[in-house]
Design brief:
Elements lengths: L6 H13 L1 H4 L2 E7 L6 E2 L9 H6 L6 E2 H11 L4 E4 L6 H15 L4 E5 L3 H19 L3 E3 L6 E5 L6 H10 L2 E4 L1 H8 L7 H5 L1 E6 L7 H21 L4 E6 L5 H9 L4 E3 L9 E6 L3 E3 L4 E2 L2 H14 L4 E5 L2 H14 L10 E4 L5 H13 L4 E4 L14 E5 L5 H8 L9 E6 L4 H8 L1 H6 L12 H14 L2 E2 H5 L6 H13 L3 E4 L2 E4 L19 E5 L6 E6 L1 H7 L5 E4 L2 E9 L4 E7 L3 E19 L1 E4 L9 E4 L6 E18 L5 E6 L5 E11 L2 H7 L9 H21 L6 E7 L24 E7 L7 H5 L3 H14 L13 H4 L3 H15 L11 H4 L5
Parallel strand pairs: 4-10, 4-11, 5-8, 5-9, 6-7, 7-8, 9-10, 12-19, 15-17, 15-18, 16-17, 18-19, 23-27
Antiparallel strand pairs: 1-12, 2-3, 13-14, 20-22, 21-22, 23-24, 25-26, 26-27, 28-31, 29-30, 31-32, 31-33, 33-35, 34-35
Helix pairs in contact: 4-5, 10-18, 12-13, 18-20, 22-27, 23-25, 23-27, 25-27
Length: 835
């Protein structure tokens, strides 16, 4: 175990970093949040007497004000959402009223829902400890036959234990996926839970946005329906990181009125937040130093000083590469090498839990993670957090940086910006990140593709009454009745006696994944010693770009060569190797317009206009919005040398296409603008293609800023609106595809989720703002011909790309007619925008 450093040690490392001449000119902001004193409230008078000494044994003599407020609302039967910072004691906000109810009535039940398995197991241990402190030997795991029990019910729960959980657990800890697929369809087996359900807890509410949230809203509709059938009406207690619309979002998710608790009463230690923009390494090309290299050097400062540190990376590949880099730093210190590990989705449960235990007990000094550790799982006391690249949203940035810090003493978060238009916009406007309000979380529970899926599940669970279909129980009554009629036509349901009955042979919940297009995972099998050990799991969507034959797949920075991928059996066979490179897949997408829903440009009715006050007007340049089909295909991969980032070669990827329907916003460049641009339209790798490529790069980056969403939720494609031509990555040895003679160049921005999540729809009327922002970014960038901070490196997009892209954006804005383009949105105004 490595003893945690004191606050003065942490502050010394921070001071050395910000005063280092090598970083001084690269630090674009250094914000210091002073320490805050706690605000207390007395324990409630109606608290069970057994809980008073139990809390005292944990050092709790009184509550923080937000904990008391949450307790009062919940025990009064009011649905509640608690929004306070990381490590502010939100867990007690729901554990206290739940445990108080269980002690008063041992027949009562509670259901806890967490977005990840790790969180449910972590919180199970927390609640179990409080139960044991309150009741001595009377409390324990549900399988022990104790008076009060808590149990985890997820995909890792052995079949032999599942009946015990159903029969004995007073608190069932699970996740939305298991509620959807394993609990609600078998609600008769869970009668004891549903007849006595007093509380439902939804932790990490802010994660339930977009597709996941839209699915969960329908799962909760089904949950409340099953509860009514069994005679219960539970109170919902939600907790969330800071988002702009916590109360309205919770109310929309639950379709119930909620009380908001947002006044934090917990103490906060001094917190530093430093933003570092890597210096220009090649002025001629506008290339900056590697953000990974800068993040590695900053993280190593903290690790060498024995400061417990977490590094967040934007992808699984980058996480493994960074883990290798940090392990290599200490590889020579065999006797006293600090323990540095990686953490990401795909690791096996045993390995994940071992890492979580090591973080809590202090035996792990540093961890490199994807956003998997962004959530509130207990990972002990961390004093430093390094973010390798902007996470995509203000809320995620603050949540990740907040993983470092204690209630007393100094902590630090360091954001290292990438050479990306969005990151560089933040470098130019640090106040956007430091002072703006976090994003609004959004969902669309009435998305027809999602709604029809859950109507099938609801009909399987219980017949749907005509009165239910005509009410708001499943959204708009007209849509619900039309969908039920459509399902009857297809033999899925049957209407008789005023009810819609399930009539198909299938089990609908198994065909619906709440988070992705398919729920089928791949397993990674290590054949190095002919033992065929399973070392990891990979989601279906990740298999296209990580498990192709020839790939280097990494686990804890150890390299494995993918020898064979059995697509049908969902197995990848790998062997351990010592590789000097890692692999990076290249893919492309094609977009086929299925239906144009709207054409025209959004015009703001004043500076403070909201999305609902955007009108559409016809213009010579008319952005469009509609339904599209997206075809994604991985076509090849690069071999990238560790540390130097040299490209050592290429390889082909021979995998099937991934096809789904979604929504897109697009703009087609009219012939008159092409003529004014003065470039040919049908020459391979022409100046027009370079200009389009550059504009697409900057629009894609800034769309995430305008919509206040994660940039990975949207894709971008350059193609022809009506013909089957789309720009693809160039691979040596392959001829570039030639545009058709009559080319209608179009830039598509589409939702990267089946059915769409509303991003393209929100973007369409605001294309004017997006183009104005693009022109501002192009003008603010100091490069001569193009760089990753604006249009992309000139070696990729051509030496004339920046100039042509700037002129193309200006011409598109002029084509919107004078006065039609919205004024640029300031960071302060942008913070109030919503998806």
């Amino acid at each position: 175990m490595i003893a945690p450093r004191g606050p003065e040690d942490v502050r010394a490392v921070i001071d050395a970093l910000v005063s280092d001449p090598g970083y001084r000119d690269s630090i674009v902001a250094h914000q210091i949040q002073p320490a805050e004193e706690p605000k207390y409230a007395p324990l409630p008078d109606d608290l069970d007497a057994r809980l008073v000494p139990a809390l005292a044994s944990r050092g709790i003599q009184q509550l923080y004000t937000h904990q008391r407020a949450a307790y009062d609302h919940a025990t009064a039967g009011r649905h509640t959402v608690v929004v306070t910072p990381t490590a502010s004691g939100k867990t007690l906000c729901y554990n206290l009223p739940v445990l108080n109810a269980l002690l008063a009535d041992p027949g009562a039940r509670a259901l806890y829902l967490f977005p990840t398995k790790a969180l449910s197991r972590d919180q199970s241990a927390e609640l179990l400890a409080l139960m044991q402190a309150a009741t001595g030997d009377d409390a324990g795991d549900a399988g022990t036959g104790s008076l009060l029990g808590t149990a985890v019910y997820d995909g890792d729960t052995p079949p032999s234990e599942r009946r015990i959980v159903r029969d004995r657990a007073h608190v069932v800890m699970s996740n939305p996926d298991m509620l959807h697929a394993a609990i609600l369809p078998h609600h008769a087996r869970w009668m004891r839970l549903f007849e006595n359900l007093k509380y439902v807890v939804l932790d990490e509410l802010h994660t339930y946005r977009g597709v996941f949230g839209s699915h969960l809203a329908n799962v909760l509709r089904r949950l409340r329906r099953v509860c009514r059938f069994h005679g219960s009406d539970p109170v919902f207690i939600c907790s969330s990181a800071t988002i702009a619309n916590a109360a309205s979002f919770a109310s929309r998710l639950l379709e119930l009125p909620v009380e908001l608790v947002e006044e934090n009463g917990a103490p906060l230690g001094e917190r530093h937040f430093v933003m570092v923009n890597p210096p220009i390494a090649n002025p001629a090309l506008g290339l900056r130093a590697s953000y990974l290299g800068v993040a590695r050097r900053i993280a190593s400062r903290f690790l060498k000083a024995s400061v417990h540190t977490i590094v967040f990376c934007g992808s699984r590949t980058v996480t493994e590469v960074m883990t290798k880099y940090l392990k290599d730093l200490f590889r020579s210190r065999v006797d006293r090498a600090p323990r540095v590990v990686g953490y990401r989705g795909g690791y096996l449960p045993r390995e994940r839990r071992g890492i979580e235990t090591g973080l809590r007990d202090g035996s792990i000094l540093g961890v490199v993670s994807t956003n998997a550790l962004e959530l509130g799982i207990d990972i002990g006391t961390l004093d430093a957090c390094v973010l390798a690249g902007y996470p995509g949203t203000i809320a995620s940035t603050r949540q990740q940086a907040g993983r470092a810090g204690r209630r007393q003493g100094a902590s630090v978060g360091v954001l290292v910006l990438r050479s990306h238009p969005l990151d560089q916009y933040i470098a130019d406007h640090p106040e956007f990140l430091l002072d703006a309000t976090p994003e609004q979380a959004q969902l669309n529970a009435d998305n027809l593709q999602i709604l029809v899926s859950h109507l099938k599940c609801a009909a399987f669970e219980l017949p749907i009454e005509d009165a239910e279909a005509a009410s708001a129980a499943f959204g708009e009554a007209e849509d619900v009745q039309a969908l039920l009629g459509w399902l009857e036509e297809h033999g899925v349901v049957r209407h008789t006696g005023g009810r819609w009955h399930w009539s198909a042979d299938s089990y609908p919940a198994t065909d619906i994944s709440l988070r992705s297009v398919t729920s089928t995972n791949f397993v990674v099998v290590d054949t190095t010693r002919n033992q065929n050990d399973v070392i990891a799991e990979v989601d279906y969507s990740w298999a296209f770009t990580t498990l192709y034959e020839g790939a280097i797949y990494m686990v804890q920075s150890e390299q494995y060569h993918v020898d064979k991928l059995d697509w049908d059996r969902r197995k990848a066979y790998v062997r351990k190797v010592e590789s000097e490179y890692y692999t990076d897949a290249m893919s492309y997408a094609k977009v086929k317009v299925l239906q144009i829903l709207r054409e025209g440009l959004g015009r703001r009715e004043g500076k403070a206009a909201t999305a609902s006050r955007v009108s559409l007007v016809p213009t010579p340049v008319s952005p469009a919005f509609g339904e599209v089909e997206v075809i994604r295909k991985a076509i090849g991969y690069k071999k990238i040398k560790f540390y130097t980032q040299e490209n050592l070669g290429w390889g082909d990827i021979l995998l099937p296409e991934d096809i789904y329907h979604t929504q897109a916003a697009w703009v087609t460049v009219p012939p008159a603008i092409i003529e004014a641009l003065g470039v040919p339209a049908s020459v391979p790798q022409s100046d027009l293609i370079d200009a389009l490529h550059g504009v697409a790069n900057v629009l894609h980056g800034l769309a995430a800023l305008l919509l206040m969403c994660d940039g990975r939720d949207m894709g971008v494609v350059i193609g022809d609106q009506r013909k089957d031509y789309f720009l693809q990555p160039a691979i040596p040895g392959r001829p570039a595809e030639k545009p058709p003679e009559q080319f209608e160049p179009t830039i598509f921005l589409y939702d990267q989720y089946s059915g769409g999540i509303g991003l393209a729809e929100a973007l369409h009327p605001r294309f004017g703002e997006l183009l104005v922002g693009a022109l501002e970014r192009l003008g603010a960038c100091d490069c001569a011909h193009g760089c990753p901070s604006c249009v992309g490196p000139d070696l990729e997009v051509g030496p004339r790309a920046k100039g042509l892209a700037t002129r193309l954006v200006s011409l598109l804005l002029a084509g919107l007619q004078p006065g039609e383009a919205a004024a640029p949105t300031s960071p302060a105004e942008a913070s109030g925008s919503s998806v």
